[in-house]
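Task card 7
Instruction: Convert sequence to structure tokens.
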Amino acid sequence: MLLGVPLFHLLNLLAPALGVALLLVLATSLGVIGRRWRGFEGWLGRVGWITLTGSLCLLGCLGWLGRDGKMLAYGLLVITAALTQAVCLKMWRR
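Output:
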């Protein structure tokens, strides 16, 4: 039981990164934002990369700011997710 509580808190800390990644990839796949990305062959990889970079961003902000839930951390999460999405889609070539 003692191991479950810290794991639960860690998962709650990283859940916003997964949520932002899923919404961003879904919106791009449907063509809601930006150019429509065709195909679903690489969507799981993009969700993984965006979640990984977003999680590192949130963990870094937790260490830097000292607590979770600050709006600065969530703003940096959105910027990190957008930059990772741009790299995954190779936006500099368009």
